[in-house]
Amino acid sequence: MKLLLLEDDKDVRERVARLLRAAGHVVDECSTGPDAIFLGTTNSYAVLILDRMVRGVDGLNALKALRAAGVQTPALFLTAMDDVSDRVEGLEAGADDYLVKPFAGTELLARVAALGRRPPVAEITTHLKVADLEIDLLKRAVTRGGKPIDLQQQEYKLLEFLMQHAGEIVTRTMLLENVWSFHFDPGTNLIESHMSRLRAKVDRGFDRELIHTVRGAGYRLDADA
């Protein structure tokens, strides 16, 4: 794994870096908070290892700056500050783990490995777009070609699901389970009637249709079909 190590004590930094490299990791070293912020925002790391008590911009404020910049890389604090309040402050600043000095090298390696196994934080999607059709998920606002489209609740849920699966065939069963929470087919034209109204609002009056029926399979929202 590629790691970032912030430690202003040269001897400690070199000792920790050797330990990590001996375990097969690639390590970028730095001794100041501003350098950690620069490296952390311009490179991709699996884990950040930060000494809290760095002169100037310390590890705590460096991590705050990285989190404010959108960097969600797992972070481990190395520190001699072992009060509960210090640990809480570090965790609230965005740290994922805390290791108090002096520490065993085997424990550091184990904690780094555990943090490196964590899945990356998924980006939160707040906007969907297919061609000139757009949904603002926060405002629950739908527009096409910049013009607002007024949808009823189920129409909105239906369109959102279609756009989340743009280009894919969406079956009747998928729609019943994910839009209506039905785990059985009621045997009605529920989907067809809602789809007809949705098409009238989304496609009517525009140069190309986006919602398509796939005979014998289901529906697909696709700008290129």
CATH architecture of the largest domain: 3-Layer(aba) Sandwich
Number of helices: 8
Enumerate the strands of the largest sheet in spatial order, edge to edge or round the barrel: 2-1-3-4-5
The H-and-E topology, N to C, reads as: EHEHEHEHEHEEEEHHHEE
Mean residue pLDDT = 89
Helical amount: 25-40%
- The name CATH uses for the topology of the largest domain is Rossmann fold
- Beta-strand level of the residues, as a percent range? 15-25%
Largest sheet: 5 strands, parallel
Q: Quick one: overall form?
A: elongated
Detail the poorly predicted runs.
none
Distance between the termini: 42 Å
Oligomer kind: single chain
Radius of gyration: 26 Å
The level 1 CATH classification of the largest domain is Alpha Beta
Topology (elements, then pairings):
Layout: E1 2-6, H1 10-22, E2 26-30, H2 33-42, E3 47-51, H3 59-68, E4 75-79, H4 84-92, E5 97-100, H5 105-116, E6 127-130, E7 133-136, E8 141-144, E9 147-149, H6 153-164, H7 172-178, H8 190-202, E10 211-214, E11 218-221
Parallel strand pairs: 1-2, 1-3, 3-4, 4-5
Antiparallel strand pairs: 6-7, 7-8, 8-9, 10-11
Helix pairs in contact: 2-3, 6-8
Summarize this structure as a short list of keywords or feature phrases:
8 helices, 5-stranded parallel β-sheet, 225 residues, Arc Repressor Mutant, subunit A, 2 domains, Rossmann fold, 38% helix, alpha/beta
Structure description:
By secondary structure, the chain is an alpha/beta fold. 38% of the residues lie in helices and 21% in strands. It is built from 8 helices and 11 strands. Helix 2 runs parallel beside helix 3 and helix 6 crosses helix 8.
